[in-house]
Each structure stands twice: as C-alpha cells, then as structure tokens.
Amino acid sequence: MEPYIAEHPVFGKGMEVVAYELDFRAGFREYCQGLETEGPAADPATFLDFAELTNGKRGVVRFPRDLLMVDFPVLFSKDMMVTGVSADLADDEQVLRRCRFLRDHGYVIAVLGLAPAHVDLPVMELAEYGAVDFSAAPGEHKQAVVSALARRGVQALATNLDTSEAFQEALSLGYTLFEGEFFARPIVRPGREIAPRKLTYLRLLREVNNPALSYDEIATLVEQDVALTYKLLKFMNSAWFGLQFKVSSVKHALVLLGPPEIRRWVSLVAVRSVAEDKPEELLVRSLTRAKGAEQIGWAAGMQREAPELFLMGMLSLMDALTDRPMEDVLAKLPLEEQIKTALLGGTGNYRDVFDAVVAYERGDWNALADLLGRFRIDDQEIPGLMRESLTWAREALHEI
Question: With contact defined as beta carbons under 8 Å apart, do 267 and 311 qualify?
Fold first, then answer.
C-alpha cells in the first residue's frame, strides 16, 4: 500500500530547495502502523524512499512521541532524514534523552513550532534547526525566537509563509530557511507588463493552441529563435524518443511529433522559458500538476479530455511565473473555455480534476477524498499516480 505523502519544499535564502517537509495523510503514526499489514519483516525504508521522494534532499518528518521513543527513527537513513520534534515535547526528560541518543548517532534534530519559552530548554542544545509557524506566532515571538536561535547557532526556519510579504518579513528578521506557498504566488505590481521574452513564449503558446495549427507557421516561429530550434532538435534526437535516425529539420521534428505532442512540447518549453527567473521548484510543480491532471483524468474516464487537462495543469501557475493576474495571462491564449473556467475558479469536471491535484499537493486529504468520491476513483490509485507525475516532471525538466 503506497502512502499518501505531500511534499512541502524548504528553501534557502537563494530560493534553492534544501529539504522537503513530508506530510502524511492521517499522520506518520498511522503510516507506520499501516506497514504492519505488509508483514512482520516490513522495512519502512522500502515504502518510504527518501531519495526518490525528495530528489536527493533531506526529508523533514514530524515524529509523534510514541514513535520517537522506539527504534523507528533509526530505521531511516541519517543522511536523508531530519527528525522533527514538536516544541510541546521539549521539556520532556525522556524525549530529551532520546534526542541526545539520535544526535549522538548522527541524526539531525529539528524542533518545530517554537515559541520564546522553548528556546532556552536543553533540547535546543541538540537541535540543528528550529521552526516558527509564521501563520500563528505573534510578531514579537518571531523576532525573539530568531534572535535566541542565532545566539545558539541554530538555523531558523520560518514555516507557513503564504505570501511574499510574509517571506520578506522572515528574511528581514534573519531567518535562513523558508517554507510555505509564498513562492507560488504572483507579485503583481500596478502598471507592470509581462516581460517581452515571456510574452514571446505566450504568443507561441497561443499559436500552437490554434485549432487550425499549421506545421509551416509553427516551424517559422520556432526557427526565429535559435535556442528554441536547438531545444527541439535536441529533444527529438534524445533517448526520450529512441529514434533510429537523426532529425535535422524543425518541420520534420514537428511532423514526427504531431499536433498533440507539438502542443505538449511547446507548453513544456514555454513554461520553462517563462520560469527562467523563478525558483526551479515552481517549474517542477507546474509539470507535476500537468501530468497529475492528465493521469487523474484518465482514471476518471476523461481520456478524450486528457490533453486539455495536461495543458490546464501546465498553465495553472502562469500567474506566478509572469507576476500577472491569471485573467490577464489567459486573455492572451485561445484555450478551451473549460480550461479558462477551471483556472479562474469556476465549476465543472476540469475544476474538480484541478482541485484534486492541488489537494494532494497541499496535503488536504479530506478535500481529496471528497473529489475522488465524485469521480469514483479508487483512492489507492492516487499515491502511485502522483508519485509517477512527480518523477516524470523531474525527468522532463532535464529533457527540455
């Protein structure tokens, strides 16, 4: 049984991903208990591959007290896992001894949900990271905690940063690690237009989504951009396709792709190019949403709509990529009305598929269960589909 796991990226000051916080449906305890059904010799590391889940980064897991106190943490790689301990347990003497044991054996400790009263407790001498929930902590707590952590040499993590303003506040206070949805929000400034280079790719997207797509017209557009021409020919001659002959012209490549794959490839390249000044994680998320929406569409019996669902997921973060309202971006593209309706918050099957992808992404398991019920999808299919979508996104990122 594959576990439901949402991954929340943790960024450094340069907006590079340094770790992922792993959010389990019903909690980590229930996941571990579920392993009992796999037999007495079940190895949890077999069912929770940190390297695959976190793309080689560390995974932060919040351990409840009962699992912390047994041997469960040491079953996972100390190089891949950060042991999360709730600050509410910080004054528990047994927890302190357990944390000391883990630290002495090379495991990294993060104390989560810190308030000023916690930072002078002995457990902080063992911690490498301390986290403050920015959505709940008063302003004076945020400053007091980061100052105290700095004196101890503990890295300060600001969590639940849901706006760019919250991120800027954490940055200005001295936090060095950041988690939340802030990176996927557009920074809209009045009078600011889409950058010319990004507008070029949006125009290309508009052309390939024209129902009367012309190979000659698309070839002309592609050939006007040397970098785009190179990317297309490299893509067609890569191991991804495994062709037995070399493709040397743009039109030949387009004919081999065909209209559906032309739209898909151009969407991939366009989003990659539009995202050139944005965190790479934003692009990974766009690609994962695209593939996830397509896969859920297939599972829901919407095979004919799968290409449109893919494009919907791909475009769903275009507001954050261009720093413009979604209405402005979509106005420049000749899309199916159902795609526009879904991305602008309307209702319908497209929107339900989109909401299911986002619910999994954010770990909103109750909302996801409701949506899967509407589509009559076996909920055991979804973790595998979303895991495949994430793997595909990371692989596709290196092919375009």
Answer: yes
């040491």: which residue's tokens? 74
Tracing tokens 């889940």 back to the chain, one arrives at 53
CB contact at 8 A, 97 and 117:
no
Residues sharing a CB contact under 8 Å with residue 377, sequence separation 6 or more, in sequence order: 296, 299, 300
**At 39, is the pLDDT very low, low, confident or very high (cuts 50, 70, 90)?**
very low
Q: What is the pLDDT of residue 57?
A: 92
DSSP state of 109: E
Q: Where in the chain is the domain with CATH 3.20.20.450?
A: 5-184
Instruction: Give the predicted TM-score (pTM) of the model.
Output: 0.86
Let me know if 131 is exposed, middle or buried by CB neighbors in 10 A (0-12, 13-18, 19+).
Answer: buried
Residue 316: both structure tokens together: 């769903």
pLDDT tens-digit map of 301-341: 999 999 899 999 999 999 999 888 999 889 888 888 999 99
Residues with Cβ within 8 Å of residue 280, at least 6 apart in sequence? 16, 17, 397
CA separation, residue 21 to residues 81, 116, 198, 270 (Å)? 10, 23, 32, 29
Q: Phi/psi at 348 (nearest 5 deg)?
A: 130, 175
| pLDDT value at 196 more than 80 | no
Report whether 132 contacts 155 (CB < 8 A): no
Instruction: Round to whole Å and give the CA distance between 23 and 61.
Output: 8
May I ask the CATH class of domain 5-184?
alpha beta
Strands 108-112 and 81-86: parallel
CATH number of 196-397: 1.10.3210.10
Q: Which two tokens stand for residue 117?
A: 């009263």
Burial class (CB in 10 A: 0-12, 13-18, 19+), 112: buried
